[in-house]
Amino acid sequence: MTSDVEITVVGGSLAGLTLALACAARGMPVRVLEQSKGHVLGGDSLTVDLSLLRAMTGHDPRLPPALPVVPAYRDLTTWPALYSWLQARVNETPTITLEGERRVLSVTDLGEGVEITFEDGKKQITPVVLGADGYRSVVRRAIAPDHPYARYAGYLVWRGLVEERTLKRPVPWPSDGGLWIEIIDGYRLVAATLPGRDGSLVPGHRQITFAWFDVHQEQLLRRTGCLTLDGHIVGSLARGMIDESVRLDLASRARAIWPELWLEAVLTGISSPETLSGAPIAEYKPEQLVRGNLAILGDAAHVISPMTGRGLLTGMEDASTLAQLLASRNPKGSFASVLSSYEQARLPFIQGLVNHSMRISAEYRRRAGG
User: Fold this and answer.
1) Could you report the per-residue pLDDT of 76-90, keeping only the tens digit for each?
2) Out of 3.30.9.60, 3.40.50.2000, 3.40.30.10, 3.30.360.10, which CATH number does the structure's domain 152-281 have?
3) CA distances from 361 to 17, 45, 277, 284, 351 (A)
4) Among 31, 57, 162, 277, which has the minimal tally of Cβ within 10 Å of its Cβ?
């Protein structure tokens, strides 16, 4: 189907760019509103389904310019690599308009369309708005004003991404291919080798990622304003925001608990405030995904623990379902009815997935003594 009606997507991160490409591949023009100039950094390691990505976007990530992946037990890539690949495909698609530095303050469903209010006070009317604006979604607040925020799952994850060339020696891949390290003193570590910034898989030229799960940092999160008194997450410890005293404490703990295989990479990541971030793990179980001509997807629609390994994949599935339903819309039919079908198709699965995430988190907290 080819349509002259422009789809408006709020949020130009992974879910938003994927949705834009999926819609464009099905003949729909798209406008993406992104509050920043463009993402440079983000989460680190990602499990990616290359076949699904090709089917959705119409671009094969295995062909030049290929998306760099490490073919482990699942294909792994980095957040910056996937973002850059998606952004490049968006920029070469003439039916997609990507507007940076367009911070959306609010959205209001008007029945026949949606009014968007920007931070600079300007307003515009558009037929439909799809929110891919993350776990603190503005669009979600309009859809579910009584249930707008994700709740703290009881632990955070320290993340680092280290250039292998900065280490004394390359990191050998574990012979069993395993990534998860069992809980030690309430902590859990996931570490892996990833493609280098140039896509290289040559030892010494790759990147090393780690995710260190920690149940002991609730006071730190409250002190830094990341966590409200009633348990809602309103911020995270971004790169450059973590005090030296916190990093020194983490380094001391790392020396005591983590195996030699990953220790140097973890210590290197901790040593620089520009390479370490701390993200409180959030969980959000939606009661609805749609209100009139508004819909949410990805982290705006559901927030789950990374221990599920389903975050990116579920967002891609949301985008695929939305794009297919929008492409099959009768030109005389309403967007609201199409979005209602999206909610019927996705909500039961999403709620079940969040329930699964909550069970995983509860078990981790129990075993970790949190």
Assistant:
1) 888 889 999 999 999
2) 3.30.9.60
3) 29, 20, 20, 13, 15
4) 31
